[in-house]
Design a protein that fits this description.
Structural class: alpha/beta
Oligomer: single chain
Number of helices: 8
CATH topology of the largest domain: Alpha/beta knot
Largest sheet: 5 strands, parallel
Shape: elongated
CATH architecture of the largest domain: 3-Layer(aba) Sandwich
Amino acid sequence: MWGYNLSMRIDILTLFPEMFAGVLDYSILRRAQDHSVVKINIHNLRDWATDKYKSVDDRPYGSGPGMVLRVDIIDKAVSTLKSQFSILNLKSNSNDQNSNIKTKIILLDAKGKTYKQKMVQELAKEEHLILICGHYEGVDQRVAEHIADEVISVGDYVLSGGEIPAMVIVDSIVRLLPGALGNPESLKEESFSDTGVEYAQYTRPEEYKGWKVPEVLLSGNHKQIKEWRNHK
C-alpha cells in the first residue's frame, strides 16, 4: 500500500558502534529486526584501517584544528558493503536476471540538506542504505562529492558526530516499513504525513487540576470529532 520495501538492509559506518546498542535493542526498531522487516548492521570504520594504530583520520591540508576522516578509508568501507549487498541480492534473486541492485549512500553532515518527512518517505523505498557518520572536525570533502548520493543534516546545529543523526534517520525510516508498527493504522494519522502536525490527543482522566478534555471528544459525534481534528 505504501510502496515501501518488505525488507531493507541498513549499514552504518561509525567510529563508535557502542552508541547504537540501546537505540536498536528496544521498541519498534527491535521488533522490526526480530520480524526481518529490516536488517541493521553497525560497522566500525577502523576495521578498514591499514596501519597498526587503526588510523582513519589525518590533519587537514592548509592547516586548521582537529582531524579529518580520510576519503580512502571510507571508500574502501563503502565498496565492501556495496559488494556484500550485491552478492546477497544476486543469491536471493538468482532466477531474476533483471534484478536491479540498488544502494543509496548517505553522509551525515551539518552542511547537508535538512532532513524532512518527504525525504523519509523516499528513503523508505530504498533496498539498501549505507549511512556514514562523520566525526571530529569533519570528513574529506571528496566523500560528499564522489561517494555519497546524499548529504543530510538533521537540523541547523552542530553535533559531535553523525551517530545521533543516523539514529534519527533509521528510526524515522523503519517505522514506515510494512510490519514495523504493531498497528499499521497508526501511519494513516502520523504527524507530517500530509499537510501538518498530528492533532492533539487526550486520555483519562477527563478532568485534572481543572484542565478538561475538549467536550467535542466526549460527544461521540464522529463527524464533529473529525472536523475538530482537521482544524487542530
